[in-house]
Recover the amino acids of this structure.
């Protein structure tokens, strides 16, 4: 008799637990649909790739927009992880919960990496924008002041914020910028009169810029977008399966 009652209790629990699993899966699917960070990261990546070669002022505005978008994505991944965590869930949902958490953690880490690169580029452009003020009637003294201002601002360009994958090219670019500003300062002051030396330093700086821009492809967001897409699709499928569970003792 006791075994019969215990069997009925297990049966009732199995149906009740399955209902809770279905409710959890539905709620988790809604959270993932609401926080579609993959599409947003893909959009930023596409626009970022298309930003090369644009005019200085236009690029400066775009970089500011990227920073805002990426910061928003990072916050959204944190919100999504918190919302999934607050759902709780039974043992049957444990594996999918871990997948969702990994999905949003990777998305957030990738957004942070791209954001650090964008911040570094914005700092560089703050230096370059100083020389946009040069006009046909700008005096040598005014140019020398601009060079001094650029050297001071260049000190704030921090390559330490860059992800490991592109830090070396960032270091090279920063050093090349400093070298060019130093030679430019000496040339403007009349300490050197060899224009070839100035041009050589500028050419090196331009090449280092190109190297840094090319190195962005080493960022995880470029290598992992397909993997992240596959993980997102797997999560969607796993949630669909859980939404159809009719009986579970886990």
């Amino acid at each position: 008799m006791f075994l019969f009652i215990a069997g009925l209790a297990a049966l009732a629990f199995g149906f009740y637990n399955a209902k809770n699993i279905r409710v959890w899966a539905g709620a988790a699917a809604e959270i993932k649909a609401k926080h579609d960070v993959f599409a947003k990261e893909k959009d930023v990546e596409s626009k970022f790739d298309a930003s090369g070669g644009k005019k200085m002022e236009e690029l400066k505005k775009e970089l500011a927009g990227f920073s805002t978008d990426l910061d928003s994505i990072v916050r959204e991944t944190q919100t999504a992880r918190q919302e999934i965590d607050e759902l709780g869930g039974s043992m049957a949902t444990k594996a999918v919960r871990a997948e969702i958490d990994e999905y949003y953690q990777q998305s957030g880490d990738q957004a942070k990496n791209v954001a650090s690169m964008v911040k570094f580029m914005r700092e560089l452009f703050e230096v370059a924008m100083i020389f946009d003020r040069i006009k046909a009637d700008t005096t040598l003294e005014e140019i020398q002041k601009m060079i001094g201002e650029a050297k001071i601002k260049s000190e704030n360009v921090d390559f330490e914020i860059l992800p490991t994958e592109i830090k070396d090219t960032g270091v090279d670019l920063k050093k090349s910028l400093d070298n060019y500003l130093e030679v430019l300062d000496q040339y403007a002051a009349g300490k050197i009169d060899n224009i070839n030396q100035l041009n050589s330093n500028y050419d090196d700086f331009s090449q280092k810029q190109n190297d840094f821009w090319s190195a962005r492809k080493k960022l995880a967001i470029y290598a992992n977008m397909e993997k992240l897409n596959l993980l997102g699709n797997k999560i969607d499928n796993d949630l669909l399966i859980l939404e159809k569970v009719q009986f579970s003792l886990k």
About this structure: Helices lie at 2-34, 37-49, 56-87, 94-130, 140-154, 164-188, 195-215, 220-243. The chain has one domain: 2-243. Residues 94-130 form the longest helix (37 residues). Confidence is low (pLDDT under 50) at residues 1-16.
